[in-house]
Amino acid sequence: MRFRSWIVRGGAALAAAGVLVLTPAPLGAWGLEVHRLITDRAIDRLPVDLRPFFDADRAFVVEHAADPDLWKAMDLRGTLGVEAPNHYFDIDGLGSAPPFADVPHDRRAFIDKYGSAVANRTGRLPWQMAAVYARLVDAFGRVGRGAAADTDTRYLAAVLAHYVEDAYVPFHAVVNYDGQLTGQRGVHARFETALVLGHAHAMTFAAVPVRPVPDITAFAFETIVDSAALAAPVLDADRRAAAAHPGYDAAYYAMFWDGCGTLLTRRLGEAASGVASVVTAAWKAAGQPDLPAARVEHLAPQAAR
Ligand SMILES: [Zn+2]
């Protein structure tokens, strides 16, 4: 089964990559940890009107930023369908050239143009992002009306963070998502998991300013177009490193890092700022409500039974 995210399922890929010795943490948890790491940095980048509200329950927000990947394991189904395609959008598989300006942003128009088979194969990350964004705007509108409303808001921000972070990953935006078309199978995990894992101790996220997001779907497409363009340099770096060190050993990873470590830390920094930008935009769209101060109590969502 096609599996696309910051996560590596099980430890097999890491073991095969020969980086087992570098991992004191349980294998398989790192991909989830990358989402948590980015979300943690994103909270730091929120403007002063929002930061205390999320900071007051930072551990909750950070923890739940990994949830959508776990929904895949549970085979949960959302309003748009099964979960897995919500995490990617292979924009280079539609017969257009960058910057893919003729790909409709409207989902109905997109399906009309390409048909449902292509639409399903391509993924639906932009529309999942927009759907969760709309729910977050709605939740911000109810904030302050009790602990359950506050929990909803923090939870939806965490879930939105997940999808925004996925949009920043080059291999969530291209058909050759695991190097399978260029004889580089496994590059997905080598790049977004093993490379991050090996350098987490010394990694500095690029400082990228928070920016306005007037249109969430346009923002998603723009981010995905940028991600797709980054797949080629990462594949080049992998190819050169693997040619010199075909065993994917420590020397391979050192050379891979030399080839695309800068790109990776820049993308992680952009992802953190992207999350902060989108959460801030949702708050503004809700009319910039005052957010309650510190009191935190976790109650089930009001509508749930
Ligand atoms: Zn994901």
Explain what you see.
With 305 residues, this protein is mostly helical. The chain has one domain: P1 Nuclease (Orthogonal Bundle). It is 56% helix and 1% strand. It has helices at residues 12-17, 30-44, 51-55, 58-64, 67-73, 107-114, 116-122, 125-142, 147-167, 187-199, 216-244, 250-285, and strands at 77-78, 81-82. It has a two-stranded antiparallel sheet with strand order 1-2. Strand 1 (77-78) and strand 2 (81-82) form a beta hairpin. It starts with 11 loop residues before the first helix and ends in a 20-residue tail after the last helix. Residues 1-29 have low confidence and may be disordered. The structure holds zinc ion. Zinc ion binds at residues 5, 68-69, 87, 162, 166.
What's the overall average pLDDT, rounded?
Answer: 87
Helicity, as a percent range: 55-70%
CATH topology, what is it called? P1 Nuclease
- What is the CATH superfamily label? P1 Nuclease
Structure keywords:
305 residues, mainly alpha, P1 Nuclease, two-stranded antiparallel ribbon, 12 helices, 2 strands, globular, disordered N terminus, binds zinc ion
In short:
It contains 12 helices and 2 strands; from the N terminus they run αααααββααααααα.
